[in-house]
Amino acid sequence: MTTTQLTLAGAAISLAVLYLNLRPWWKGGRDPKQLLPFGGMFLLGSVSTMCTGGVLGWLAGCSATGVNKIGDKAVPATTGTRSGALAHGSLGALDENGAVIVFLAAVVAAAAWKAAGKLDKRRMFGGAVCGSTLTLTAGVAGALVWLPGMVNSMGLSLRTALEGAGVL
To answer: Residue ranges per domain, the chain?
Structure first.
């Protein structure tokens, strides 16, 4: 198994983190603004799986390895049964234009992290872990099939504007 393949037990850890982040929102006022720390980092974690290298690609691989290790200990300790690998999914790759958008999103995320309180930092971390791990499954990657095209298109639009093609 490669380090970017998620086990069922690893997915269980990610799903538990997802649940623990969404439950307070669901039980509370369901204000969409409360989802921003988790949801924004979920999307950044998802697109980080498209990074073929660099820090974001490395962190995405570390996330998968980490939840797999935790899950491969926690699930058997709880149930006595081991789990195997899940069908692997992929969002594909970024082009040079989309890479700029992901870089800018990472800068925004870093600034938000610096300004965030302790609770929001935990939500942001959970979102990044869930996004970078669950996107490695065929089901979540299939549900996010629109994301790579959108990111790459945004990058092309930015490039066109900066090159002075009459957009601005």
So the answer is: 8-162
